[in-house]
Amino acid sequence: SRFPTRLPVPHMGWNTIHEYKDNKILKEIGKSSEFYFLHSYYFKCKFEEHSLAKTQYGMTFTSIINKENIYGIQFHPEKSHRHGIRILKNFAEI
């Protein structure tokens, strides 16, 4: 879904993910780590059990999902410095 028009779109810049589920993709990532976002749409997670982390941008949305061996990440790990490198490393080790 597209972000509400009352917000600057695209959602661009640094924002915090709030980890609320333990998962290998989030190994050594702090509970409130910042990542680089650049997008106009957000993912509506149908099943909360698949949502690993959330982000606030005028509303709360899922920023990391996981179901079995499938992962989805809303932000750009390649632009997110040390935390992004850690996410990519964790994914490679799963």
Unreliable stretches: none
Task: Give me the strand/helix succession.
Answer: EEEEEH
Number of helical segments with 4 or more residues: 1
N- to C-terminal distance: 29 Å
Mean pLDDT: 93
Radius of gyration: 13 Å
Helix content: 10-25%
Describe the protein in words:
The protein starts with 10 loop residues before the first strand and ends with a helix. The mean pLDDT is 93. It is mainly β and 94 residues long. It is built from one helix and five strands; from the N terminus they run βββββα. A hairpin with a 3-residue loop joins strand 3 and strand 4 (60-67). The protein has a five-stranded antiparallel beta sheet.
Key words describing this protein structure:
five-stranded antiparallel β-sheet; mainly beta; 94 residues; single chain; globular
What would you say about this model in short?
With 94 residues, this protein is mainly β. It has 1 helix and 5 strands.
Task: Write the SSE topology.
Elements: E1 11-19, E2 32-39, E3 51-56, E4 60-67, E5 70-73, H1 81-93
Antiparallel strand pairs: 1-2, 1-3, 3-4, 4-5
